[in-house]
Request: fold
Amino acid sequence: KAGVTQTPRYLIKTRGQQVTLSCSPISGHRSVSWYQQTPGQGLQFLFEYFSETQRNKGNFPGRFSGRQFSNSRSEMNVSTLELGDSALYLCASSWGLAGAYNEQFFGPGTRLTVL
Amino acid sequence: AQSVTQPDIHITVSEGASLELRCNYSYGATPYLFWYVQSPGQGLQLLLKYFSGDTLVQGIKGFEAEFKRSQSSFNLRKPSVHWSDAAEYFCAVVGVANFGNEKLTFGTGTRLTIIP
Reply:
């Protein structure tokens, strides 16, 4: 069974631009969660989508948004990029809602650099 | 709200030596605790998890962790490290978020370096 895939793996953007990242979950998984990883803040939860609905949201500004399609693939979008948005963005999928009893499987991440 | 503290930012261990990575949590109820490992350029891989029952849990790659409620700790151990264990290790706790759903809260990580 293929793992979680994320595209692109690397991305360079300039301030003010917007970016869309893509995540394909493991086949059969219906939940996709997104995390931001930075050296200063560590791993921070962005949001979770399940059956095309946002079920959980972290403490990030509205510039960060996401969506999930009927095939469970998910995209996240960051508008008006700031230098501080430079990070590794990780996607994780699980069969059910992420939590104690539904293990999350992580993708390799998308490395976003904002210049 | 739940939180996790990993006091050691960076640890260096000789190959073949024993390892203990510290993790302290804060959560009002019984926590669900996890250890993940992240190798360079990779995503996170689950090493082990604790929900309830036996406080000593075994994981993959020869790792184990012990839950100690009295100390609010969930330390990760390995009796003999291998060069391939060099990576970043994250402790995480599941708590209930605003919407009543569970989400992972991670510690800041401990980077493990192995010397020959």
User: Anything to note?
Assistant: Chain B touches chain A through 24 residues (CB under 8 Å). The first strand of chain B starts at residue 3 and ends at 5. Chain B has a mean pLDDT of 90.
